[in-house]
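input
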Amino acid sequence: MMDRAFLIDLQLFSEEKTEAPTPKKRSEARRRAQVPRSQDLSAASVFLLGTLCLWVLGWRIVGLLRDYARNVWSNWLIPEPDLASVGWLSIKTLGYATLPMMLAAFAFAGVVTASQVGLLFSTHAISPDLTRLDPVRGLGRIFSRRTAVELVKSFGKVGLIGVILYFHLQGTVRGLLLLGGTEVEVGAAYIGRQALLAALKAGGALVLLGACDLAYQRWEHERSLMMTRKELKDETKETEGNPQIRSKIREMQRRIARSRMMAEVPKADVCITNPVHFAVALKYVPEKMRAPRIVAKGRDLMAQRIRELALSSGVTVVRNEGLARALYTLADIGDYVPRELYQAVAEVLAFVYRMKLQAKGAMR
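output
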Protein backbone atom coordinates (compact mmCIF):
# COMPACT_ATOMS: atom_id res chain seq x y z
CA MET A 1 0.00 0.00 0.00
CA MET A 2 2.86 2.39 0.77
CA ASP A 3 4.31 1.91 -2.73
CA ARG A 4 1.06 2.64 -4.50
CA ALA A 5 0.99 5.97 -6.35
CA PHE A 6 -2.01 8.23 -6.08
CA LEU A 7 -2.83 10.50 -9.02
CA ILE A 8 -4.46 13.85 -8.30
CA ASP A 9 -6.23 15.75 -11.07
CA LEU A 10 -5.00 19.32 -10.68
CA GLN A 11 -7.91 20.55 -12.83
CA LEU A 12 -10.13 20.11 -9.78
CA PHE A 13 -8.38 23.07 -8.16
CA SER A 14 -8.66 25.22 -11.27
CA GLU A 15 -12.45 25.41 -10.87
CA GLU A 16 -12.17 27.48 -7.71
CA LYS A 17 -13.45 31.01 -8.21
CA THR A 18 -10.38 32.98 -7.28
CA GLU A 19 -10.35 35.71 -9.96
CA ALA A 20 -11.98 39.12 -9.59
CA PRO A 21 -14.94 39.74 -11.94
CA THR A 22 -14.21 41.60 -15.14
CA PRO A 23 -16.12 44.73 -16.26
CA LYS A 24 -17.93 42.58 -18.84
CA LYS A 25 -19.10 40.16 -16.16
CA ARG A 26 -20.33 43.05 -14.04
CA SER A 27 -22.19 44.69 -16.94
CA GLU A 28 -23.86 41.39 -17.88
CA ALA A 29 -24.98 40.87 -14.29
CA ARG A 30 -26.39 44.40 -14.18
CA ARG A 31 -28.19 43.83 -17.48
CA ARG A 32 -29.87 40.79 -15.88
CA ALA A 33 -30.83 42.99 -12.88
CA GLN A 34 -28.41 41.08 -10.65
CA VAL A 35 -27.35 43.99 -8.46
CA PRO A 36 -26.69 44.17 -4.72
CA ARG A 37 -29.63 45.65 -2.89
CA SER A 38 -31.22 45.25 0.50
CA GLN A 39 -35.00 44.95 0.62
CA ASP A 40 -34.79 45.16 4.40
CA LEU A 41 -33.14 48.59 4.16
CA SER A 42 -35.79 49.85 1.75
CA ALA A 43 -38.67 48.54 3.86
CA ALA A 44 -37.16 49.87 7.10
CA SER A 45 -36.52 53.29 5.57
CA VAL A 46 -40.09 53.58 4.29
CA PHE A 47 -41.41 52.43 7.67
CA LEU A 48 -39.31 55.01 9.49
CA LEU A 49 -40.42 57.75 7.08
CA GLY A 50 -44.07 56.78 7.51
CA THR A 51 -43.68 56.95 11.27
CA LEU A 52 -42.08 60.39 11.02
CA CYS A 53 -44.96 61.54 8.81
CA LEU A 54 -47.44 60.31 11.41
CA TRP A 55 -45.48 62.17 14.08
CA VAL A 56 -45.62 65.42 12.09
CA LEU A 57 -49.07 65.07 10.50
CA GLY A 58 -50.77 63.06 13.26
CA TRP A 59 -52.83 65.92 14.66
CA ARG A 60 -53.99 66.88 11.16
CA ILE A 61 -55.08 63.30 10.49
CA VAL A 62 -56.83 63.05 13.84
CA GLY A 63 -58.67 66.29 13.13
CA LEU A 64 -59.80 65.07 9.71
CA LEU A 65 -61.07 61.80 11.13
CA ARG A 66 -62.88 63.60 13.97
CA ASP A 67 -64.66 65.94 11.54
CA TYR A 68 -65.45 62.98 9.32
CA ALA A 69 -67.03 61.05 12.20
CA ARG A 70 -69.16 64.04 13.18
CA ASN A 71 -70.40 64.55 9.63
CA VAL A 72 -71.19 60.86 9.15
CA TRP A 73 -73.10 60.59 12.38
CA SER A 74 -74.95 63.79 11.56
CA ASN A 75 -76.00 62.42 8.17
CA TRP A 76 -77.05 59.06 9.59
CA LEU A 77 -79.14 60.65 12.32
CA ILE A 78 -81.50 62.30 9.85
CA PRO A 79 -84.56 60.29 8.71
CA GLU A 80 -83.27 59.73 5.17
CA PRO A 81 -79.42 59.54 5.18
CA ASP A 82 -77.64 60.64 2.01
CA LEU A 83 -75.49 57.57 1.26
CA ALA A 84 -73.82 59.21 -1.75
CA SER A 85 -72.69 62.15 0.37
CA VAL A 86 -71.39 59.82 3.08
CA GLY A 87 -69.45 57.76 0.51
CA TRP A 88 -67.92 60.78 -1.18
CA LEU A 89 -66.99 62.26 2.19
CA SER A 90 -65.32 58.98 3.19
CA ILE A 91 -63.22 58.87 0.02
CA LYS A 92 -62.25 62.53 0.28
CA THR A 93 -61.31 62.26 3.95
CA LEU A 94 -59.18 59.13 3.44
CA GLY A 95 -57.48 60.78 0.49
CA TYR A 96 -56.65 63.94 2.42
CA ALA A 97 -55.43 61.89 5.37
CA THR A 98 -53.28 59.30 3.55
CA LEU A 99 -52.25 60.86 0.21
CA PRO A 100 -49.32 62.97 1.56
CA MET A 101 -47.93 59.97 3.43
CA MET A 102 -48.33 57.66 0.42
CA LEU A 103 -46.63 60.11 -1.95
CA ALA A 104 -43.77 60.68 0.48
CA ALA A 105 -43.31 56.94 1.06
CA PHE A 106 -43.40 56.21 -2.69
CA ALA A 107 -40.85 58.93 -3.49
CA PHE A 108 -38.58 57.93 -0.61
CA ALA A 109 -38.69 54.25 -1.61
CA GLY A 110 -37.53 55.23 -5.09
CA VAL A 111 -34.71 57.35 -3.67
CA VAL A 112 -33.51 54.56 -1.36
CA THR A 113 -33.59 51.98 -4.17
CA ALA A 114 -31.80 54.31 -6.58
CA SER A 115 -29.13 55.03 -3.98
CA GLN A 116 -28.41 51.30 -3.79
CA VAL A 117 -28.44 50.26 -7.45
CA GLY A 118 -28.54 53.51 -9.44
CA LEU A 119 -30.84 54.05 -12.40
CA LEU A 120 -31.64 50.57 -13.70
CA PHE A 121 -34.39 49.29 -15.98
CA SER A 122 -34.44 45.62 -16.90
CA THR A 123 -37.17 43.19 -17.93
CA HIS A 124 -35.04 40.14 -17.19
CA ALA A 125 -36.57 39.66 -13.74
CA ILE A 126 -40.12 39.36 -15.15
CA SER A 127 -39.19 37.32 -18.25
CA PRO A 128 -40.22 33.62 -18.18
CA ASP A 129 -37.52 31.25 -16.95
CA LEU A 130 -38.25 27.52 -17.17
CA THR A 131 -35.30 26.67 -14.93
CA ARG A 132 -37.34 28.00 -12.01
CA LEU A 133 -39.64 24.98 -12.43
CA ASP A 134 -36.75 22.58 -11.86
CA PRO A 135 -37.51 20.78 -8.54
CA VAL A 136 -33.83 20.00 -7.93
CA ARG A 137 -32.85 23.65 -8.20
CA GLY A 138 -35.87 24.56 -6.09
CA LEU A 139 -34.67 22.30 -3.29
CA GLY A 140 -31.21 23.79 -3.70
CA ARG A 141 -32.62 27.28 -3.19
CA ILE A 142 -34.61 26.16 -0.15
CA PHE A 143 -31.60 24.63 1.58
CA SER A 144 -29.07 27.20 0.40
CA ARG A 145 -26.91 29.51 2.47
CA ARG A 146 -28.95 32.50 1.31
CA THR A 147 -32.12 30.95 2.75
CA ALA A 148 -30.34 30.29 6.05
CA VAL A 149 -29.13 33.89 6.18
CA GLU A 150 -32.65 35.20 5.48
CA LEU A 151 -34.01 32.97 8.27
CA VAL A 152 -31.42 34.30 10.71
CA LYS A 153 -32.24 37.88 9.68
CA SER A 154 -35.96 37.29 10.25
CA PHE A 155 -35.37 35.95 13.75
CA GLY A 156 -32.95 38.81 14.38
CA LYS A 157 -35.52 41.44 13.35
CA VAL A 158 -38.25 39.88 15.49
CA GLY A 159 -35.93 39.64 18.49
CA LEU A 160 -34.65 43.20 18.02
CA ILE A 161 -38.15 44.67 17.83
CA GLY A 162 -39.21 42.60 20.83
CA VAL A 163 -36.32 43.89 22.94
CA ILE A 164 -36.99 47.52 21.93
CA LEU A 165 -40.70 47.26 22.73
CA TYR A 166 -39.99 45.56 26.04
CA PHE A 167 -37.68 48.30 27.29
CA HIS A 168 -39.93 51.03 25.92
CA LEU A 169 -43.04 49.63 27.60
CA GLN A 170 -41.09 49.13 30.79
CA GLY A 171 -40.44 52.86 30.89
CA THR A 172 -44.09 53.78 30.24
CA VAL A 173 -45.81 51.48 32.75
CA ARG A 174 -46.18 54.23 35.32
CA GLY A 175 -47.70 56.61 32.77
CA LEU A 176 -50.15 53.95 31.56
CA LEU A 177 -51.30 53.26 35.12
CA LEU A 178 -52.11 56.95 35.62
CA LEU A 179 -54.38 57.09 32.56
CA GLY A 180 -57.35 55.80 34.53
CA GLY A 181 -58.03 59.22 36.00
CA THR A 182 -57.58 61.27 32.83
CA GLU A 183 -59.87 62.24 29.97
CA VAL A 184 -60.20 59.99 26.93
CA GLU A 185 -58.52 62.46 24.57
CA VAL A 186 -55.55 62.90 26.91
CA GLY A 187 -55.18 59.14 27.28
CA ALA A 188 -55.45 58.56 23.54
CA ALA A 189 -52.84 61.26 22.85
CA TYR A 190 -50.46 59.74 25.38
CA ILE A 191 -50.85 56.22 24.01
CA GLY A 192 -50.46 57.46 20.43
CA ARG A 193 -47.32 59.41 21.30
CA GLN A 194 -45.76 56.42 23.06
CA ALA A 195 -46.67 54.13 20.18
CA LEU A 196 -45.00 56.49 17.71
CA LEU A 197 -41.90 56.74 19.90
CA ALA A 198 -41.67 52.95 20.04
CA ALA A 199 -42.13 52.78 16.25
CA LEU A 200 -39.39 55.40 15.74
CA LYS A 201 -36.98 53.41 17.90
CA ALA A 202 -37.82 50.18 16.11
CA GLY A 203 -37.57 51.88 12.70
CA GLY A 204 -34.14 53.34 13.51
CA ALA A 205 -32.88 49.95 14.66
CA LEU A 206 -34.25 48.28 11.51
CA VAL A 207 -32.53 50.89 9.32
CA LEU A 208 -29.21 50.08 10.99
CA LEU A 209 -29.88 46.39 10.49
CA GLY A 210 -30.76 47.07 6.85
CA ALA A 211 -27.47 48.94 6.36
CA CYS A 212 -25.63 45.89 7.65
CA ASP A 213 -27.69 43.75 5.31
CA LEU A 214 -26.75 46.00 2.38
CA ALA A 215 -23.06 45.53 3.19
CA TYR A 216 -23.60 41.77 3.30
CA GLN A 217 -25.54 41.79 0.02
CA ARG A 218 -22.71 43.66 -1.70
CA TRP A 219 -20.16 41.19 -0.35
CA GLU A 220 -22.31 38.24 -1.42
CA HIS A 221 -22.85 39.79 -4.87
CA GLU A 222 -19.12 40.33 -5.33
CA ARG A 223 -18.49 36.76 -4.25
CA SER A 224 -21.09 35.40 -6.69
CA LEU A 225 -19.41 37.23 -9.58
CA MET A 226 -15.98 35.72 -8.89
CA MET A 227 -14.59 33.79 -11.85
CA THR A 228 -12.43 30.72 -12.34
CA ARG A 229 -9.21 30.96 -14.31
CA LYS A 230 -10.85 29.06 -17.16
CA GLU A 231 -13.78 31.50 -17.29
CA LEU A 232 -11.36 34.43 -17.30
CA LYS A 233 -9.34 32.90 -20.15
CA ASP A 234 -12.47 32.09 -22.15
CA GLU A 235 -13.81 35.65 -21.73
CA THR A 236 -10.46 37.15 -22.70
CA LYS A 237 -10.34 34.93 -25.76
CA GLU A 238 -13.93 35.85 -26.66
CA THR A 239 -13.30 39.57 -26.15
CA GLU A 240 -9.93 39.88 -27.83
CA GLY A 241 -10.23 37.01 -30.26
CA ASN A 242 -8.11 33.92 -30.83
CA PRO A 243 -4.36 34.59 -30.27
CA GLN A 244 -3.50 33.06 -33.65
CA ILE A 245 -6.02 35.28 -35.41
CA ARG A 246 -4.72 38.34 -33.55
CA SER A 247 -1.19 37.40 -34.61
CA LYS A 248 -2.23 37.12 -38.24
CA ILE A 249 -4.03 40.48 -38.07
CA ARG A 250 -0.95 42.15 -36.61
CA GLU A 251 1.24 40.57 -39.29
CA MET A 252 -1.11 41.83 -42.00
CA GLN A 253 -1.04 45.31 -40.46
CA ARG A 254 2.76 45.24 -40.44
CA ARG A 255 2.80 44.23 -44.11
CA ILE A 256 0.47 47.07 -45.05
CA ALA A 257 2.58 49.53 -43.06
CA ARG A 258 5.77 48.26 -44.74
CA SER A 259 4.25 48.51 -48.21
CA ARG A 260 3.13 52.11 -47.52
CA MET A 261 6.57 52.96 -46.18
CA MET A 262 8.33 51.48 -49.21
CA ALA A 263 6.02 53.43 -51.50
CA GLU A 264 7.35 56.65 -49.93
CA VAL A 265 11.03 55.83 -50.51
CA PRO A 266 11.10 56.91 -54.21
CA LYS A 267 9.61 60.29 -53.15
CA ALA A 268 12.37 60.97 -50.59
CA ASP A 269 15.11 63.58 -51.02
CA VAL A 270 17.87 61.56 -49.40
CA CYS A 271 18.53 58.16 -47.86
CA ILE A 272 21.02 58.25 -44.99
CA THR A 273 22.61 54.87 -44.31
CA ASN A 274 24.92 52.92 -42.16
CA PRO A 275 25.81 50.59 -44.99
CA VAL A 276 25.16 47.41 -43.05
CA HIS A 277 22.64 48.07 -40.27
CA PHE A 278 20.51 51.22 -40.70
CA ALA A 279 18.77 53.21 -43.43
CA VAL A 280 16.57 56.31 -43.01
CA ALA A 281 14.80 58.13 -45.86
CA LEU A 282 14.04 61.84 -45.47
CA LYS A 283 11.82 64.22 -47.36
CA TYR A 284 11.74 68.00 -47.07
CA VAL A 285 9.39 70.50 -48.72
CA PRO A 286 10.27 73.95 -47.36
CA GLU A 287 6.88 75.47 -48.24
CA LYS A 288 4.90 72.74 -46.40
CA MET A 289 7.18 71.35 -43.69
CA ARG A 290 8.80 73.07 -40.72
CA ALA A 291 11.57 70.45 -40.76
CA PRO A 292 12.58 67.34 -42.75
CA ARG A 293 10.29 64.35 -42.13
CA ILE A 294 11.21 60.68 -41.87
CA VAL A 295 9.25 58.76 -44.49
CA ALA A 296 10.94 55.36 -44.11
CA LYS A 297 13.42 53.61 -41.87
CA GLY A 298 14.68 50.10 -41.43
CA ARG A 299 17.29 47.89 -39.87
CA ASP A 300 19.43 45.08 -41.30
CA LEU A 301 17.43 43.37 -44.09
CA MET A 302 14.83 46.15 -44.24
CA ALA A 303 17.66 48.72 -44.38
CA GLN A 304 19.14 46.89 -47.34
CA ARG A 305 15.78 46.89 -49.16
CA ILE A 306 15.29 50.63 -48.51
CA ARG A 307 18.81 51.38 -49.77
CA GLU A 308 18.33 49.28 -52.92
CA LEU A 309 14.96 50.88 -53.67
CA ALA A 310 16.43 54.35 -53.17
CA LEU A 311 19.29 53.63 -55.56
CA SER A 312 16.96 52.17 -58.18
CA SER A 313 14.62 55.19 -57.83
CA GLY A 314 17.38 57.78 -58.22
CA VAL A 315 17.27 58.95 -54.59
CA THR A 316 20.63 60.15 -53.31
CA VAL A 317 22.14 57.75 -50.79
CA VAL A 318 24.49 59.31 -48.24
CA ARG A 319 26.65 57.27 -45.89
CA ASN A 320 26.67 58.70 -42.35
CA GLU A 321 26.81 55.97 -39.74
CA GLY A 322 26.28 58.10 -36.64
CA LEU A 323 23.43 60.16 -38.10
CA ALA A 324 21.66 57.08 -39.50
CA ARG A 325 21.79 55.36 -36.11
CA ALA A 326 20.60 58.51 -34.29
CA LEU A 327 17.68 59.10 -36.65
CA TYR A 328 16.60 55.45 -36.43
CA THR A 329 16.73 55.53 -32.61
CA LEU A 330 15.26 58.95 -31.82
CA ALA A 331 12.38 59.25 -34.30
CA ASP A 332 9.63 57.15 -35.86
CA ILE A 333 8.16 57.11 -39.33
CA GLY A 334 6.18 60.29 -39.94
CA ASP A 335 8.06 62.29 -37.28
CA TYR A 336 10.04 65.42 -37.94
CA VAL A 337 13.78 65.24 -37.48
CA PRO A 338 14.66 65.84 -33.80
CA ARG A 339 15.81 69.34 -33.04
CA GLU A 340 19.27 68.20 -31.86
CA LEU A 341 19.91 66.69 -35.31
CA TYR A 342 18.89 69.76 -37.35
CA GLN A 343 22.49 70.84 -38.05
CA ALA A 344 23.68 67.42 -39.18
CA VAL A 345 20.64 66.87 -41.42
CA ALA A 346 20.92 70.37 -42.86
CA GLU A 347 24.50 69.67 -43.89
CA VAL A 348 23.44 66.44 -45.60
CA LEU A 349 20.57 68.12 -47.43
CA ALA A 350 22.83 70.97 -48.52
CA PHE A 351 25.25 68.40 -49.91
CA VAL A 352 22.41 66.66 -51.77
CA TYR A 353 21.06 69.90 -53.24
CA ARG A 354 24.57 70.86 -54.44
CA MET A 355 24.94 67.51 -56.14
CA LYS A 356 21.58 67.93 -57.86
CA LEU A 357 22.50 71.44 -59.04
CA GLN A 358 25.82 70.18 -60.34
CA ALA A 359 24.07 67.34 -62.15
CA LYS A 360 21.63 69.77 -63.78
CA GLY A 361 24.52 72.05 -64.82
CA ALA A 362 26.41 69.15 -66.34
CA MET A 363 23.33 68.13 -68.33
CA ARG A 364 23.07 71.63 -69.80
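quick obs: The longest strand covers residues 293-299.
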